[in-house]
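Sample A.
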Amino acid sequence: MNEPRWLTWSRQLQAISQTGLAFTRDPYDRERYETLTGLAATMLAAHTATRTDEIADLFHRETGYATPKIDVRAAVFDDRRRMLMVREATDKDRWTLPGGWADVNITLTESAIKEVREESGYDARVIKLAAVWDRATQGHPPSVFSCAKLFFFCELAGGEARTSLETSEVAWFGRDEIPADLSLGRVLPQQIERMFAHAADPALPTDFD
């Protein structure tokens, strides 16, 4: 893991306090868990440009048992083994695979297909789950909350290029044509390379850490 230890510690404190607040019925324990929330927020504020009260407010919006968030990414390939990528308008027009947070009330596969359609205009057919990785172990920029990243290997099933409120450009790239300006919070070069490996050999087992 390349994350600073203070981030790991503050995330763990926040998870303990969130779960504790969800289940405790003891007013004294509730006070102790609230103190942990404040401590986690103070640790983050000391190492970032965000105020303690803003971070504490973010933490208090998270309720129930603390679990990782789920990010889905679709590696869509056409019949020329080119990969579909989109420019992420919310991240300085950097390139990424279509995807985002998984939606409720639909399957993870359906979430991936939905993200492809919304962000690129294309329809995709999911072939398999290619990888399940923890964001913190992969080398992504540090983030407040724990996150599991699911990569689906997909085939093009129709549609046509169309941008959206989230994307400013849609394009296909060969293995040696991947743009350098990637949205690293969403996808990393080695993850893209691994998706090309799955496209070359669909029998490869699912990667996980």
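Sample B, a different protein:
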Amino acid sequence: MKEMTFLDHLDELRTRLIIMLVAVAVGTVACFFASKPVLVFVTTLSHVKLLALSPQTPFMVLLKLSLIMGIAVAAPVILLQAWLFVAPGLYPHERKYIWPAVLAGVLLFIIGGGFALFVVPYTLRFFEQFGAGYIVFNYDINKFVSFVGGFILAFGIVFQLPIVLFFLAKIGVVDYAFLAGNRKFAVILTLVVGAILTPADIFSMVVLAAPLYVLFEISLIIIRFTKPVNRDEYNE
């Protein structure tokens, strides 16, 4: 396996990041024309009324939404480039998992984003019940898009957990016994991740942490029947 210097790694990282950014830029431009229908759909789905606090706000919000959608559309390229970056450090028998991992990652990202859209209305209803009867909820369109977009990206990211754990188990970094024996730390870690990736409130944190822990348990089932490859066979 060819050895890469530190500078080689930096050059490789720069190339991969440039490709990711170009993919996001192209996706953002393409999604701008669909951003308004998507905003109308999400608003209707969530049963909310939005307010623009300045004349330029709607345009700026559509740009922000286009960027969020651009990231989602560019997810296959982003995942592929991430895997290709680590590929030089993998053995040939490990590289064959790159494409299945990318395809599975895209599918899980879509599922995670869809689950987020499903959860958003219930999250809003939860918060609104504390002001029911004496507060009229008209949301700032900018903050609403940031809230929903952040939810979608956060769920899309955390739904990659089974792929990451499967790959780590396949190369022998973790195993079933280790992960199963540290469930209590997994619970704490999911709560921490939920707190980092969602707004600063307990409900949103739990909404993200709960499916993340379920994914952890699903990953355990998969890993239990995953046979790690023997890297020593490929060492010269």
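Observation for Sample B: The mean pLDDT is 85.
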